[in-house]
Design a protein that fits this description.
Length: about 625
């Protein structure tokens, strides 16, 4: 039998005293709709609300019927958080956002310990787990050998009188989370994961804050893209259809639609391309992108069609559907541990993949007379890798203030840096080609790619055509100039094979590397990408707590709001009065965080502000 104490009226003094006197308190919430409108909003922190707030100390479990507590009792609860050192949650982003939406200062504690994040750090496999693998139900089964009954999770939490079964379920969630905390904490210590866990836990409210604030999409600007891309898609579709069957060359688009081929269907498009002589096993961009575009120009048209169609259906018509009716903003979901190297990922929608063209990013504007502030790292991963591998020439080039891709190109072409740099004025096209080759070589070969991998990478990512001979020559020349990479790659590969895992500078364990076919390239790059991910999270966490100390917080002033974390880039929304301060805070926190991992090479992160995401980059 599960013991708990349930309150919906006055909260006894001894309960408040018990909560205040405990260093560690477990927190969970059950949520429901604010108003019944025939739709389910219980999981939306803006359209839903907290029904139950569960708090568990070492010896007691308290359930507060938050929907029926009056403001006096709610204020009593709010005051306890500043006395608590550690709040323990499972999937804390959800709890944090709902607490803020109800005025609960959950982050007044010193740290929020998330048992889901702790489990992810302990296991952290290269192979992506199945959905639900880190749910409280499955984690409890693996670590506590407890079968959790989640039947009541989807029950109606808006009814006036909750059932005994619902209350027991709510109590069991915090009890299981409490047991997980005691089970996982020594494992983190045993595996030397305390440092990286602190990075993740400090970044947790910062990421939740980005989701909570959301980002504004100006539909007056955005909707202008619809007719343009509808026309572009139609144009490329017509070109492809005419090429696939010469009989239709003189036909109109409407007549072409009678041509019984759906070029969005791989099973229909592939045979037609093969009839033209293309030797391809699929119509994926990475496959057909490697084929001879001069001999088969239709490849360009197919790729352009696919890219334009993706922009139209994946972004232009799709993004507005995510605008929340309460705020008029998009509130995406960030996965704080989206990859095994610690990078975040983003869904509903994926803002990380917003096209880089100005016409897209100019639609992300400030709201209510505010500006967008933007800053990102400059060549962060090449700098981390150069220091990890001890690459003397490249490190010196960075110290001398040389542009890294131009410098690498100068080494590949056996000329001096100034000669290639001066081409920017005398022969811009040649400058662009040589710098691009330098960029492709550095970003590919520093991560252990072979010559053929480099050839494919250059073509599929940068649209740079290299012959096999050119690829082999560039690879050989690169490692002649920078032999330290070869030594580093072998060291990491041998260590991964021996241990089965690698650890980053912060102690992040990447497990199961030895079982992957691409073990060599994973071993070569995982410490670098992990260092970059750590830098970004340290910056976000530090900036969150600095702003909070200044009174800038979801529960107070929101004059400076973090609204996006896009790979190496951070977006803020700021009032005009504080835009300069926002730039300074953002730049400083990015640079300080990076110096944990780049100790010799200078780190650059310059912030700009503007009316939109696009103009803030200028």
């Amino acid at each position: 039998m599960i013991n708990y104490k349930y309150f919906r009226d006055e909260i006894p003094v001894e309960v408040i005293e018990d909560l205040c006197s405990n260093r560690e308190v477990v927190l969970d919430v059950e949520t429901c709709n604010k108003e019944f409108d025939g739709q389910e909003h219980g999981l939306d922190f803006l359209q839903g609300t907290i029904r139950l707030l569960q708090l568990a100390t070492k010896n007691n479990v308290y359930i507060f019927d938050y929907l029926y507590l009056d403001n006096v009792e709610k204020q009593k609860l709010n005051k306890v958080f500043k006395y608590i050192k550690v709040i323990i949650t499972h999937h804390g982003q959800f709890d944090i956002k709902f607490c803020w939406s109800c005025g609960i200062p959950i982050d007044d504690c010193e740290i929020i310990f998330d048992t889901e994040l702790a489990t992810r750090l302990i296991e952290n496999p290269v192979e992506k787990p199945k959905p639900g693998h880190y749910s409280l139900k499955q984690v409890s089964a693996r670590y506590l050998n407890i079968e959790v009954d989640k039947t009541e999770q989807k029950s109606d939490w808006s009814i006036r009188e909750l059932s005994e079964s619902q209350l027991t379920y709510a109590a069991s969630d915090v009890i299981n989370t409490r047991q997980l905390y005691y089970r996982l904490k020594p494992i983190l210590n045993q595996l030397s994961l305390n440092t990286v866990a602190k990075i993740e836990f400090r970044a947790l409210p910062a990421i939740a804050n980005i989701e909570y604030n959301g980002i504004f999409l100006n539909l007056d600007i955005w909707n202008k893209l619809i007719p343009k891309y509808e026309s572009t898609v139609k144009e490329y579709q017509t070109t492809v259809l005419k090429t696939l069957d010469h009989v239709y060359v003189q036909k109109t688009f409407d007549e072409l639609e009678l041509f019984n081929i759906n070029i969005d269907s791989p099973s229909q498009l592939l045979p037609k391309l093969q009839e033209l002589g293309l030797e391809a096993e699929s119509v994926g961009k990475k496959v057909i992108g490697l084929l001879d575009k001069i001999k088969f120009p239709i490849i360009y048209d197919v790729i352009r069609y696919k890219e334009a169609k993706k922009k139209l259906t994946g972004f232009i018509t799709n993004l507005p559907t995510y605008i929340n009716p309460v705020t008029g903003r998009i509130h995406p979901n960030y996965n704080i541990l989206g990859t095994y190297t610690g990078r975040t990922s983003c869904t509903k929608p994926n803002l990380l993949n917003i096209p880089r063209q100005e016409e897209f990013r100019e639609a992300f504007t400030g709201q209510d007379d505010t500006v967008i502030v933007d800053a990102d790292y400059s060549s962060m991963e090449p700098k981390i890798c150069a220091e990890l591998a001890g690459v003397k020439k490249l490190t010196q080039a960075f110290l001398d203030g040389k542009e890294p891709y131009v410098y690498v190109a100068s080494r590949l072409y056996s000329t001096d840096y100034e000669t290639i740099s001066n081409l920017q004025k005398t022969n811009p096209k040649e400058y662009k080609n040589k710098r691009q080759n330098g960029k492709v070589s550095l970003l590919g070969l520093q991560y252990g790619q072979g010559a053929l991998g480099l050839k494919d990478y250059a073509k599929s990512v940068f649209y740079v055509d290299l012959t096999e001979q050119e690829a082999f020559t560039i690879r050989d020349r690169f490692f002649e100039e920078f032999p330290e990479y070869t030594v580093y790659h072998k060291q990491m590969y041998n260590l991964a094979k021996k241990q089965g895992y690698l650890t980053s500078y912060s102690g992040r364990r990447i497990n199961g590397i030895d079982k992957r076919k691409n073990c060599f390239t994973i071993a070569a790059n995982c410490r670098v990408q992990a260092g970059n991910a750590d830098s970004m999270k340290i910056a976000l966490g530090n900036m969150f707590y600095e702003l909070k100390a200044k009174g800038i917080h979801p529960l107070n002033s929101r004059s400076i709001q973090p609204i996006g974390s896009i790979y190496d880039e951070v977006l803020l929304q700021s009032t005009h009065a504080q835009k300069e301060e926002a730039c300074e805070i953002l730049e400083r926190n990015l640079v300080i965080a990076a110096k944990e991992y780049v100790k010799v090479i200078p780190v650059d992160a310059e912030a700009f502000y503007g009316d939109s995401w696009a103009t803030a980059k200028k």
